[in-house]
Protein backbone atom coordinates (compact mmCIF):
# COMPACT_ATOMS: atom_id res chain seq x y z
CA UNK A 1 0.00 0.00 0.00
CA UNK A 2 1.46 3.36 -0.90
CA UNK A 3 1.84 5.96 1.84
CA UNK A 4 -1.28 8.15 2.21
CA UNK A 5 -1.21 11.65 3.68
CA UNK A 6 -4.40 13.64 4.19
CA UNK A 7 -4.75 17.38 3.68
CA UNK A 8 -7.72 19.20 5.19
CA UNK A 9 -9.35 22.29 3.68
CA UNK A 10 -12.27 24.38 4.88
CA UNK A 11 -14.53 25.74 2.18
CA UNK A 12 -15.02 29.50 2.60
CA UNK A 13 -17.75 31.81 1.29
CA UNK A 14 -15.33 33.32 -1.22
CA UNK A 15 -14.48 29.87 -2.63
CA UNK A 16 -18.07 29.60 -3.90
CA UNK A 17 -19.59 31.04 -7.06
CA UNK A 18 -22.98 32.64 -7.75
CA UNK A 19 -24.53 29.15 -7.86
CA UNK A 20 -23.51 28.82 -4.20
CA UNK A 21 -21.10 25.92 -4.78
CA UNK A 22 -17.31 25.70 -4.89
CA UNK A 23 -15.97 27.28 -8.08
CA UNK A 24 -14.13 24.27 -9.52
CA UNK A 25 -10.69 25.88 -10.10
CA UNK A 26 -10.48 26.25 -6.32
CA UNK A 27 -10.48 22.45 -6.02
CA UNK A 28 -7.27 22.44 -8.06
CA UNK A 29 -5.79 25.04 -5.72
CA UNK A 30 -6.39 22.71 -2.77
CA UNK A 31 -5.12 19.74 -4.78
CA UNK A 32 -1.86 21.58 -5.45
CA UNK A 33 -1.55 22.39 -1.74
CA UNK A 34 -2.30 18.74 -0.91
CA UNK A 35 0.44 17.62 -3.32
CA UNK A 36 3.03 19.84 -1.63
CA UNK A 37 1.66 18.81 1.80
CA UNK A 38 2.28 15.17 0.87
CA UNK A 39 5.96 15.83 0.15
CA UNK A 40 6.37 18.03 3.23
CA UNK A 41 4.74 15.28 5.32
CA UNK A 42 7.23 12.76 3.91
CA UNK A 43 10.12 14.98 4.98
CA UNK A 44 11.00 16.55 1.59
CA UNK A 45 12.37 20.04 2.28
CA UNK A 46 11.21 23.30 0.69
CA UNK A 47 11.81 23.66 -3.05
CA UNK A 48 14.36 26.44 -2.43
CA UNK A 49 16.48 23.86 -0.61
CA UNK A 50 16.01 21.10 -3.21
CA UNK A 51 16.89 23.66 -5.91
CA UNK A 52 20.30 23.98 -4.25
CA UNK A 53 20.82 20.31 -3.42
CA UNK A 54 19.16 18.45 -6.31
CA UNK A 55 18.30 21.08 -8.90
CA UNK A 56 14.58 20.38 -8.25
CA UNK A 57 12.52 23.59 -8.33
CA UNK A 58 9.17 21.87 -7.74
CA UNK A 59 6.77 19.30 -9.19
CA UNK A 60 5.09 20.85 -12.23
CA UNK A 61 1.94 19.25 -13.57
CA UNK A 62 2.02 17.45 -16.91
CA UNK A 63 -1.38 15.78 -17.07
CA UNK A 64 -4.45 15.81 -14.89
CA UNK A 65 -7.86 14.25 -14.96
CA UNK A 66 -10.62 14.75 -12.42
CA UNK A 67 -14.11 13.42 -11.90
CA UNK A 68 -16.51 15.62 -9.93
CA UNK A 69 -19.08 13.58 -8.04
CA UNK A 70 -20.78 15.87 -5.49
CA UNK A 71 -20.77 19.61 -4.94
CA UNK A 72 -19.44 21.33 -1.84
CA UNK A 73 -20.25 24.67 -0.27
CA UNK A 74 -18.98 27.03 2.41
CA UNK A 75 -18.87 25.60 5.88
CA UNK A 76 -17.83 22.20 4.54
CA UNK A 77 -14.56 20.61 5.63
CA UNK A 78 -12.91 18.50 2.95
CA UNK A 79 -10.33 15.74 3.31
CA UNK A 80 -7.83 15.24 0.48
CA UNK A 81 -6.24 11.76 0.76
CA UNK A 82 -3.04 11.83 -1.32
CA UNK A 83 -0.82 9.03 -2.64
CA UNK A 84 1.89 8.54 -5.20
CA UNK A 85 0.42 5.64 -7.13
CA UNK A 86 3.31 5.03 -9.51
CA UNK A 87 6.95 6.04 -9.84
CA UNK A 88 8.30 6.27 -13.37
CA UNK A 89 11.80 7.15 -14.53
CA UNK A 90 11.14 10.84 -15.07
CA UNK A 91 7.63 11.34 -13.72
CA UNK A 92 5.18 10.07 -11.11
CA UNK A 93 1.43 9.58 -10.74
CA UNK A 94 -0.15 11.39 -7.79
CA UNK A 95 -3.75 10.65 -6.86
CA UNK A 96 -6.35 12.40 -4.67
CA UNK A 97 -9.58 11.20 -3.15
CA UNK A 98 -11.61 14.10 -1.78
CA UNK A 99 -14.37 13.51 0.73
CA UNK A 100 -16.56 15.38 3.17
CA UNK A 101 -17.59 13.99 6.53
CA UNK A 102 -21.35 14.30 6.88
CA UNK A 103 -23.88 13.35 9.50
CA UNK A 104 -24.74 10.43 7.23
CA UNK A 105 -21.16 9.27 6.74
CA UNK A 106 -18.58 10.13 4.12
CA UNK A 107 -19.51 11.78 0.82
CA UNK A 108 -17.19 11.47 -2.17
CA UNK A 109 -16.67 14.92 -3.71
CA UNK A 110 -14.12 14.22 -6.42
CA UNK A 111 -11.25 12.03 -7.56
CA UNK A 112 -8.19 13.30 -9.37
CA UNK A 113 -5.12 11.69 -10.89
CA UNK A 114 -2.12 13.61 -12.12
CA UNK A 115 1.22 13.07 -13.81
CA UNK A 116 3.87 15.37 -12.37
CA UNK A 117 7.60 15.71 -12.91
CA UNK A 118 10.49 16.85 -10.75
CA UNK A 119 11.30 20.05 -12.63
CA UNK A 120 14.73 21.52 -13.18
CA UNK A 121 15.84 24.55 -15.13
CA UNK A 122 17.68 24.06 -18.43
CA UNK A 123 20.65 26.39 -18.89
CA UNK A 124 18.40 28.17 -21.46
CA UNK A 125 15.84 28.86 -18.69
CA UNK A 126 13.27 26.34 -19.82
CA UNK A 127 11.78 23.73 -17.56
CA UNK A 128 12.78 20.07 -18.00
CA UNK A 129 11.94 16.77 -16.33
CA UNK A 130 14.72 15.44 -14.10
CA UNK A 131 15.12 11.73 -13.31
CA UNK A 132 13.13 11.02 -10.12
CA UNK A 133 15.66 11.69 -7.33
CA UNK A 134 16.14 8.42 -5.37
CA UNK A 135 16.49 10.46 -2.13
CA UNK A 136 12.99 11.87 -2.59
CA UNK A 137 11.44 8.60 -3.72
CA UNK A 138 12.89 6.83 -0.67
CA UNK A 139 11.22 9.35 1.65
CA UNK A 140 7.83 9.01 -0.03
CA UNK A 141 7.39 5.28 -0.48
CA UNK B 1 -16.79 21.90 -38.13
CA UNK B 2 -18.12 22.93 -34.74
CA UNK B 3 -18.30 26.65 -33.97
CA UNK B 4 -15.08 27.95 -32.36
CA UNK B 5 -14.95 31.04 -30.15
CA UNK B 6 -11.65 32.33 -28.80
CA UNK B 7 -11.14 33.86 -25.36
CA UNK B 8 -8.05 35.94 -24.67
CA UNK B 9 -6.31 36.19 -21.29
CA UNK B 10 -3.28 38.16 -20.22
CA UNK B 11 -1.03 36.46 -17.69
CA UNK B 12 -0.35 38.76 -14.74
CA UNK B 13 2.45 38.73 -12.14
CA UNK B 14 0.03 37.47 -9.48
CA UNK B 15 -1.02 34.52 -11.66
CA UNK B 16 2.50 33.13 -11.31
CA UNK B 17 4.02 31.12 -8.49
CA UNK B 18 7.46 31.20 -6.84
CA UNK B 19 8.86 29.21 -9.81
CA UNK B 20 7.90 32.23 -11.97
CA UNK B 21 5.36 30.31 -14.09
CA UNK B 22 1.56 30.27 -14.11
CA UNK B 23 0.21 28.45 -11.07
CA UNK B 24 -1.81 25.74 -12.83
CA UNK B 25 -5.18 26.24 -11.06
CA UNK B 26 -5.26 29.68 -12.72
CA UNK B 27 -5.44 27.94 -16.12
CA UNK B 28 -8.69 26.36 -14.97
CA UNK B 29 -10.00 29.79 -13.96
CA UNK B 30 -9.43 31.06 -17.50
CA UNK B 31 -10.90 27.84 -18.94
CA UNK B 32 -14.07 28.40 -16.94
CA UNK B 33 -14.25 31.99 -18.18
CA UNK B 34 -13.65 30.77 -21.74
CA UNK B 35 -16.50 28.25 -21.35
CA UNK B 36 -18.95 30.97 -20.29
CA UNK B 37 -17.53 33.31 -22.99
CA UNK B 38 -18.34 30.65 -25.60
CA UNK B 39 -21.99 30.54 -24.55
CA UNK B 40 -22.22 34.34 -24.29
CA UNK B 41 -20.67 34.62 -27.77
CA UNK B 42 -23.32 32.21 -29.11
CA UNK B 43 -26.06 34.41 -27.68
CA UNK B 44 -26.94 32.38 -24.57
CA UNK B 45 -28.14 34.86 -21.89
CA UNK B 46 -26.86 35.14 -18.31
CA UNK B 47 -27.54 32.17 -16.04
CA UNK B 48 -29.94 34.26 -13.93
CA UNK B 49 -32.14 34.58 -16.99
CA UNK B 50 -31.87 30.90 -18.02
CA UNK B 51 -32.68 29.99 -14.41
CA UNK B 52 -36.03 31.71 -14.87
CA UNK B 53 -36.71 30.54 -18.43
CA UNK B 54 -35.21 27.04 -18.54
CA UNK B 55 -34.28 26.16 -14.98
CA UNK B 56 -30.59 26.17 -16.01
CA UNK B 57 -28.38 27.68 -13.30
CA UNK B 58 -25.11 27.13 -15.19
CA UNK B 59 -22.89 24.43 -16.69
CA UNK B 60 -21.20 22.58 -13.81
CA UNK B 61 -18.18 20.45 -14.57
CA UNK B 62 -18.44 16.65 -14.34
CA UNK B 63 -15.12 15.49 -15.78
CA UNK B 64 -11.99 17.22 -16.98
CA UNK B 65 -8.66 16.19 -18.37
CA UNK B 66 -5.84 18.48 -19.34
CA UNK B 67 -2.37 18.06 -20.83
CA UNK B 68 0.16 20.77 -20.05
CA UNK B 69 2.70 21.19 -22.86
CA UNK B 70 4.56 24.48 -22.28
CA UNK B 71 4.74 26.89 -19.38
CA UNK B 72 3.56 30.51 -19.51
CA UNK B 73 4.57 33.55 -17.49
CA UNK B 74 3.48 37.12 -16.84
CA UNK B 75 3.41 39.36 -19.86
CA UNK B 76 2.17 36.48 -22.04
CA UNK B 77 -1.14 36.73 -23.87
CA UNK B 78 -2.96 33.42 -24.22
CA UNK B 79 -5.65 32.41 -26.71
CA UNK B 80 -8.24 29.84 -25.60
CA UNK B 81 -9.99 28.36 -28.67
CA UNK B 82 -13.24 26.78 -27.42
CA UNK B 83 -15.61 24.30 -29.08
CA UNK B 84 -18.41 22.00 -28.07
CA UNK B 85 -17.14 18.77 -29.57
CA UNK B 86 -20.11 16.56 -28.77
CA UNK B 87 -23.71 16.98 -27.65
CA UNK B 88 -25.13 14.15 -25.55
CA UNK B 89 -28.62 13.79 -24.12
CA UNK B 90 -27.81 15.23 -20.70
CA UNK B 91 -24.24 16.48 -21.08
CA UNK B 92 -21.79 17.91 -23.60
CA UNK B 93 -18.06 17.80 -24.30
CA UNK B 94 -16.32 21.18 -24.35
CA UNK B 95 -12.73 21.41 -25.57
CA UNK B 96 -10.00 24.05 -25.26
CA UNK B 97 -6.77 24.58 -27.18
CA UNK B 98 -4.58 27.15 -25.48
CA UNK B 99 -1.78 28.86 -27.38
CA UNK B 100 0.55 31.82 -27.11
CA UNK B 101 1.61 33.93 -30.09
CA UNK B 102 5.38 34.17 -30.08
CA UNK B 103 7.95 35.79 -32.34
CA UNK B 104 8.63 32.29 -33.65
CA UNK B 105 4.96 31.47 -34.31
CA UNK B 106 2.35 29.79 -32.15
CA UNK B 107 3.26 27.80 -29.03
CA UNK B 108 0.86 25.20 -27.66
CA UNK B 109 0.45 25.71 -23.91
CA UNK B 110 -2.19 23.14 -23.01
CA UNK B 111 -5.18 21.17 -24.21
CA UNK B 112 -8.23 20.43 -22.10
CA UNK B 113 -11.41 18.44 -22.61
CA UNK B 114 -14.35 18.53 -20.24
CA UNK B 115 -17.76 16.98 -19.74
CA UNK B 116 -20.26 19.51 -18.44
CA UNK B 117 -23.99 19.45 -17.77
CA UNK B 118 -26.74 22.00 -17.85
CA UNK B 119 -27.43 22.12 -14.13
CA UNK B 120 -30.82 22.57 -12.48
CA UNK B 121 -31.83 22.54 -8.84
CA UNK B 122 -33.78 19.57 -7.51
CA UNK B 123 -36.62 20.52 -5.17
CA UNK B 124 -34.34 19.15 -2.39
CA UNK B 125 -31.71 21.76 -3.32
CA UNK B 126 -29.29 19.34 -4.96
CA UNK B 127 -27.87 19.84 -8.42
CA UNK B 128 -29.04 17.61 -11.25
CA UNK B 129 -28.34 17.28 -14.97
CA UNK B 130 -31.13 18.60 -17.19
CA UNK B 131 -31.67 17.37 -20.75
CA UNK B 132 -29.65 19.63 -23.07
CA UNK B 133 -32.08 22.48 -23.91
CA UNK B 134 -32.66 22.48 -27.70
CA UNK B 135 -32.82 26.32 -27.65
CA UNK B 136 -29.27 26.48 -26.31
CA UNK B 137 -27.91 23.75 -28.56
CA UNK B 138 -29.36 25.51 -31.62
CA UNK B 139 -27.52 28.71 -30.71
CA UNK B 140 -24.19 26.92 -30.22
CA UNK B 141 -23.95 24.59 -33.21
CA UNK C 1 -12.95 44.29 25.72
CA UNK C 2 -14.69 43.22 22.53
CA UNK C 3 -14.93 39.52 21.78
CA UNK C 4 -11.92 38.23 19.81
CA UNK C 5 -12.04 35.15 17.58
CA UNK C 6 -8.92 33.86 15.83
CA UNK C 7 -8.82 32.36 12.37
CA UNK C 8 -5.83 30.29 11.30
CA UNK C 9 -4.51 30.04 7.74
CA UNK C 10 -1.61 28.09 6.30
CA UNK C 11 0.29 29.81 3.52
CA UNK C 12 0.62 27.52 0.50
CA UNK C 13 3.09 27.57 -2.42
CA UNK C 14 0.36 28.80 -4.76
CA UNK C 15 -0.44 31.75 -2.46
CA UNK C 16 3.01 33.17 -3.23
CA UNK C 17 4.15 35.19 -6.23
CA UNK C 18 7.36 35.12 -8.28
CA UNK C 19 9.08 37.13 -5.52
CA UNK C 20 8.44 34.12 -3.25
CA UNK C 21 6.15 36.01 -0.84
CA UNK C 22 2.38 36.01 -0.34
CA UNK C 23 0.65 37.82 -3.20
CA UNK C 24 -1.15 40.52 -1.20
CA UNK C 25 -4.71 39.99 -2.55
CA UNK C 26 -4.57 36.56 -0.89
CA UNK C 27 -4.35 38.30 2.50
CA UNK C 28 -7.73 39.86 1.77
CA UNK C 29 -9.11 36.43 0.90
CA UNK C 30 -8.10 35.16 4.35
CA UNK C 31 -9.41 38.36 5.97
CA UNK C 32 -12.80 37.78 4.37
CA UNK C 33 -12.80 34.18 5.61
CA UNK C 34 -11.78 35.43 9.07
CA UNK C 35 -14.67 37.92 9.04
CA UNK C 36 -17.20 35.17 8.28
CA UNK C 37 -15.46 32.86 10.79
CA UNK C 38 -15.97 35.51 13.48
CA UNK C 39 -19.72 35.58 12.89
CA UNK C 40 -19.96 31.78 12.64
CA UNK C 41 -17.98 31.53 15.91
CA UNK C 42 -20.47 33.91 17.57
CA UNK C 43 -23.35 31.69 16.49
CA UNK C 44 -24.62 33.70 13.51
CA UNK C 45 -26.12 31.23 11.00
CA UNK C 46 -25.29 30.95 7.29
CA UNK C 47 -26.25 33.92 5.13
CA UNK C 48 -28.89 31.81 3.32
CA UNK C 49 -30.69 31.48 6.66
CA UNK C 50 -30.32 35.16 7.64
CA UNK C 51 -31.59 36.07 4.15
CA UNK C 52 -34.83 34.31 5.05
CA UNK C 53 -35.08 35.48 8.66
CA UNK C 54 -33.59 39.00 8.58
CA UNK C 55 -33.12 39.88 4.92
CA UNK C 56 -29.34 39.90 5.51
CA UNK C 57 -27.47 38.41 2.55
CA UNK C 58 -24.00 38.99 3.98
CA UNK C 59 -21.62 41.69 5.20
CA UNK C 60 -20.31 43.55 2.14
CA UNK C 61 -17.25 45.71 2.54
CA UNK C 62 -17.55 49.48 2.34
CA UNK C 63 -14.09 50.68 3.36
CA UNK C 64 -10.84 48.97 4.17
CA UNK C 65 -7.36 50.03 5.13
CA UNK C 66 -4.41 47.76 5.75
CA UNK C 67 -0.82 48.19 6.81
CA UNK C 68 1.63 45.49 5.72
CA UNK C 69 4.49 45.10 8.20
CA UNK C 70 6.31 41.82 7.39
CA UNK C 71 6.16 39.42 4.49
CA UNK C 72 5.03 35.79 4.74
CA UNK C 73 5.81 32.76 2.63
CA UNK C 74 4.66 29.18 2.12
CA UNK C 75 4.97 26.96 5.15
CA UNK C 76 3.99 29.83 7.45
CA UNK C 77 0.94 29.55 9.67
CA UNK C 78 -0.84 32.84 10.25
CA UNK C 79 -3.23 33.84 13.05
CA UNK C 80 -5.95 36.37 12.24
CA UNK C 81 -7.33 37.85 15.51
CA UNK C 82 -10.71 39.42 14.68
CA UNK C 83 -12.89 41.87 16.61
CA UNK C 84 -15.80 44.15 15.96
CA UNK C 85 -14.37 47.39 17.29
CA UNK C 86 -17.44 49.59 16.87
CA UNK C 87 -21.14 49.13 16.19
CA UNK C 88 -22.85 51.96 14.30
CA UNK C 89 -26.47 52.30 13.29
CA UNK C 90 -26.09 50.86 9.79
CA UNK C 91 -22.49 49.64 9.74
CA UNK C 92 -19.73 48.22 11.94
CA UNK C 93 -15.95 48.36 12.18
CA UNK C 94 -14.19 44.99 12.00
CA UNK C 95 -10.47 44.78 12.77
CA UNK C 96 -7.78 42.15 12.15
CA UNK C 97 -4.36 41.65 13.64
CA UNK C 98 -2.36 39.09 11.69
CA UNK C 99 0.66 37.41 13.22
CA UNK C 100 2.98 34.47 12.67
CA UNK C 101 4.39 32.38 15.50
CA UNK C 102 8.14 32.16 15.04
CA UNK C 103 10.97 30.55 16.97
CA UNK C 104 11.78 34.05 18.20
CA UNK C 105 8.21 34.88 19.27
CA UNK C 106 5.35 36.52 17.45
CA UNK C 107 5.87 38.51 14.25
CA UNK C 108 3.29 41.10 13.19
CA UNK C 109 2.45 40.58 9.52
CA UNK C 110 -0.32 43.11 8.95
CA UNK C 111 -3.15 45.07 10.50
CA UNK C 112 -6.45 45.79 8.79
CA UNK C 113 -9.56 47.76 9.68
CA UNK C 114 -12.76 47.64 7.70
CA UNK C 115 -16.21 49.17 7.61
CA UNK C 116 -18.84 46.61 6.64
CA UNK C 117 -22.60 46.67 6.43
CA UNK C 118 -25.32 44.08 6.85
CA UNK C 119 -26.47 43.97 3.23
CA UNK C 120 -30.02 43.48 2.02
CA UNK C 121 -31.47 43.51 -1.47
CA UNK C 122 -33.58 46.47 -2.57
CA UNK C 123 -36.70 45.48 -4.51
CA UNK C 124 -34.80 46.85 -7.57
CA UNK C 125 -32.04 44.29 -6.98
CA UNK C 126 -29.45 46.72 -5.63
CA UNK C 127 -27.61 46.23 -2.40
CA UNK C 128 -28.46 48.46 0.58
CA UNK C 129 -27.30 48.79 4.17
CA UNK C 130 -29.79 47.46 6.72
CA UNK C 131 -29.90 48.69 10.32
CA UNK C 132 -27.59 46.45 12.38
CA UNK C 133 -29.87 43.58 13.49
CA UNK C 134 -29.98 43.60 17.32
CA UNK C 135 -30.11 39.75 17.30
CA UNK C 136 -26.76 39.60 15.53
CA UNK C 137 -25.16 42.36 17.58
CA UNK C 138 -26.21 40.59 20.79
CA UNK C 139 -24.47 37.40 19.68
CA UNK C 140 -21.24 39.19 18.78
CA UNK C 141 -20.63 41.55 21.70
CA UNK D 1 -1.08 66.27 -14.18
CA UNK D 2 0.48 62.90 -13.44
CA UNK D 3 0.52 60.31 -16.22
CA UNK D 4 -2.60 58.08 -16.19
CA UNK D 5 -2.68 54.59 -17.67
CA UNK D 6 -5.90 52.59 -17.77
CA UNK D 7 -6.16 48.85 -17.24
CA UNK D 8 -9.27 47.01 -18.37
CA UNK D 9 -10.69 43.91 -16.67
CA UNK D 10 -13.71 41.80 -17.51
CA UNK D 11 -15.61 40.41 -14.54
CA UNK D 12 -16.12 36.66 -14.92
CA UNK D 13 -18.65 34.33 -13.27
CA UNK D 14 -15.93 32.84 -11.07
CA UNK D 15 -14.94 36.29 -9.78
CA UNK D 16 -18.34 36.53 -8.07
CA UNK D 17 -19.47 35.09 -4.76
CA UNK D 18 -22.73 33.47 -3.65
CA UNK D 19 -24.28 36.95 -3.36
CA UNK D 20 -23.71 37.26 -7.12
CA UNK D 21 -21.28 40.20 -6.83
CA UNK D 22 -17.51 40.45 -7.18
CA UNK D 23 -15.77 38.88 -4.19
CA UNK D 24 -13.79 41.90 -2.97
CA UNK D 25 -10.29 40.31 -2.82
CA UNK D 26 -10.56 39.94 -6.61
CA UNK D 27 -10.62 43.75 -6.90
CA UNK D 28 -7.18 43.78 -5.27
CA UNK D 29 -5.97 41.20 -7.79
CA UNK D 30 -6.95 43.52 -10.64
CA UNK D 31 -5.46 46.50 -8.79
CA UNK D 32 -2.14 44.68 -8.53
CA UNK D 33 -2.29 43.86 -12.26
CA UNK D 34 -3.15 47.51 -12.98
CA UNK D 35 -0.15 48.64 -10.92
CA UNK D 36 2.24 46.43 -12.92
CA UNK D 37 0.45 47.45 -16.16
CA UNK D 38 1.16 51.11 -15.31
CA UNK D 39 4.90 50.46 -15.04
CA UNK D 40 4.95 48.27 -18.17
CA UNK D 41 3.05 51.01 -20.05
CA UNK D 42 5.68 53.55 -18.94
CA UNK D 43 8.44 51.34 -20.33
CA UNK D 44 9.71 49.80 -17.10
CA UNK D 45 11.03 46.30 -17.94
CA UNK D 46 10.08 43.03 -16.20
CA UNK D 47 11.12 42.69 -12.57
CA UNK D 48 13.61 39.92 -13.48
CA UNK D 49 15.48 42.50 -15.55
CA UNK D 50 15.31 45.28 -12.91
CA UNK D 51 16.52 42.72 -10.36
CA UNK D 52 19.72 42.40 -12.38
CA UNK D 53 20.11 46.08 -13.28
CA UNK D 54 18.79 47.93 -10.22
CA UNK D 55 18.26 45.29 -7.55
CA UNK D 56 14.49 45.98 -7.74
CA UNK D 57 12.47 42.75 -7.40
CA UNK D 58 9.06 44.46 -7.60
CA UNK D 59 6.86 47.02 -5.87
CA UNK D 60 5.56 45.44 -2.64
CA UNK D 61 2.60 47.03 -0.93
CA UNK D 62 3.08 48.83 2.39
CA UNK D 63 -0.30 50.49 2.95
CA UNK D 64 -3.62 50.43 1.17
CA UNK D 65 -7.00 51.97 1.64
CA UNK D 66 -10.03 51.45 -0.54
CA UNK D 67 -13.58 52.74 -0.62
CA UNK D 68 -16.18 50.53 -2.28
CA UNK D 69 -18.99 52.57 -3.84
CA UNK D 70 -20.96 50.25 -6.15
CA UNK D 71 -21.00 46.53 -6.70
CA UNK D 72 -20.02 44.81 -9.96
CA UNK D 73 -21.00 41.45 -11.42
CA UNK D 74 -20.03 39.11 -14.23
CA UNK D 75 -20.39 40.53 -17.71
CA UNK D 76 -19.20 43.94 -16.49
CA UNK D 77 -16.10 45.55 -17.97
CA UNK D 78 -14.15 47.67 -15.51
CA UNK D 79 -11.66 50.45 -16.18
CA UNK D 80 -8.85 50.98 -13.66
CA UNK D 81 -7.31 54.48 -14.16
CA UNK D 82 -3.89 54.40 -12.47
CA UNK D 83 -1.55 57.23 -11.45
CA UNK D 84 1.44 57.73 -9.24
CA UNK D 85 0.20 60.62 -7.14
CA UNK D 86 3.35 61.25 -5.13
CA UNK D 87 7.02 60.27 -5.25
CA UNK D 88 8.78 60.05 -1.88
CA UNK D 89 12.41 59.20 -1.17
CA UNK D 90 11.87 55.50 -0.56
CA UNK D 91 8.21 54.98 -1.49
CA UNK D 92 5.45 56.24 -3.77
CA UNK D 93 1.68 56.70 -3.68
CA UNK D 94 -0.23 54.87 -6.41
CA UNK D 95 -3.94 55.59 -6.91
CA UNK D 96 -6.76 53.81 -8.73
CA UNK D 97 -10.18 55.00 -9.85
CA UNK D 98 -12.33 52.09 -10.96
CA UNK D 99 -15.38 52.65 -13.13
CA UNK D 100 -17.84 50.75 -15.28
CA UNK D 101 -19.29 52.15 -18.51
CA UNK D 102 -23.05 51.80 -18.37
CA UNK D 103 -25.91 52.73 -20.66
CA UNK D 104 -26.52 55.65 -18.29
CA UNK D 105 -22.88 56.83 -18.28
CA UNK D 106 -20.00 56.01 -16.00
CA UNK D 107 -20.50 54.35 -12.60
CA UNK D 108 -17.85 54.68 -9.90
CA UNK D 109 -17.12 51.24 -8.44
CA UNK D 110 -14.26 51.96 -6.05
CA UNK D 111 -11.28 54.16 -5.27
CA UNK D 112 -8.01 52.92 -3.86
CA UNK D 113 -4.80 54.55 -2.72
CA UNK D 114 -1.65 52.65 -1.86
CA UNK D 115 1.86 53.22 -0.60
CA UNK D 116 4.34 50.93 -2.34
CA UNK D 117 8.11 50.61 -2.28
CA UNK D 118 10.71 49.48 -4.76
CA UNK D 119 11.75 46.29 -3.01
CA UNK D 120 15.24 44.85 -2.88
CA UNK D 121 16.61 41.82 -1.06
CA UNK D 122 18.82 42.34 1.97
CA UNK D 123 21.85 40.02 2.09
CA UNK D 124 19.91 38.23 4.91
CA UNK D 125 17.08 37.51 2.44
CA UNK D 126 14.63 40.02 3.90
CA UNK D 127 12.85 42.63 1.83
CA UNK D 128 13.87 46.27 2.16
CA UNK D 129 12.82 49.57 0.59
CA UNK D 130 15.32 50.93 -1.95
CA UNK D 131 15.59 54.63 -2.78
CA UNK D 132 13.23 55.31 -5.70
CA UNK D 133 15.42 54.66 -8.80
CA UNK D 134 15.61 57.92 -10.80
CA UNK D 135 15.58 55.91 -14.07
CA UNK D 136 12.17 54.47 -13.18
CA UNK D 137 10.76 57.75 -11.87
CA UNK D 138 11.81 59.52 -15.09
CA UNK D 139 9.88 56.97 -17.17
CA UNK D 140 6.72 57.30 -15.07
CA UNK D 141 6.31 61.04 -14.59
TrEMBL record, chains A, B, C, D:
Segments passing through the bilayer: none
PROSITE patterns: 4HBCOA_THIOESTERASE
Keyword list, A-Z: Hydrolase
Pfam families documented for this protein: 4HBT_2
Keyword Hydrolase in record: yes
Single GO molecular function: hydrolase activity
InterPro entries associated with the record: HB-CoA_thioesterase_AS, HotDog_dom_sf
Family: Belongs to the 4-hydroxybenzoyl-CoA thioesterase family.
Name this protein carries in UniProt: 4-hydroxybenzoyl-CoA thioesterase
Organism whose genome encodes this protein: Pseudacidovorax intermedius
